[in-house]
Amino acid sequence: MKDIALFLAPTVRGLFQRAISQSGSVLNPWAYVDIASAQTRAQQLTQLLGYSAEDNNDIYNFLMGASSENITIQQSNVTTERRASEGLAFVPTAEKTTGSGGEVFLPASPLEILKSGNFTRVPYITGFCSTEGKFLVSTITSDTWDQLNNDFESFLPYDLNLTIGTTESQHAAALVKKTYFGNETASIANVEQYIK
Fold this sequence. Notes:
Elements: E1 19-22, H1 35-48, H2 56-65, H3 68-75, H4 110-116, E2 124-127, H5 134-137, H6 142-150, H7 167-181, H8 192-195
Parallel strand pairs: 1-2
Helix pairs in contact: 1-2
Protein name: Carboxylesterase type B domain-containing protein
Pfam family, one: COesterase
Family: Belongs to the type-B carboxylesterase/lipase family.
């Protein structure tokens, strides 16, 4: 998924002849985050690791010196600003250009780059696997199942651009829940029909 961002990066133009997006693309809502959210998440991670800073250079220097084991453990505790269904906290973001002449990997969001047409055009295929999200099922706690059943609406993909609490959002949540779970309570016993 994230390696497909390579085809959007001007710094690697000409290095690839074709592309495959398997199990997602840079346009998935969980595959990219804006710079402000990325900075907030980095601050939150440093706080979880016992350090408090707001300056990006201080955060960078601290994280470069932190143990990879501690970072790996704490990154799953970083919460996201969006809905519960977003998933990953650390994903690619557009970089700010620097006055030092350093190269920027992603100068804008993937959607903006695609709209501009300023990317490497190569043959491209996309695919998915059956039971794609099965590996995530083991991470779902009983609290999450309760939250899903009590507030299914908060698990709708945020890229649907629905405002939680509106009639449209509530209708979409009811439709998705009925489609995948019928009149049953969502649980580990029937999640298979949701991830197929």
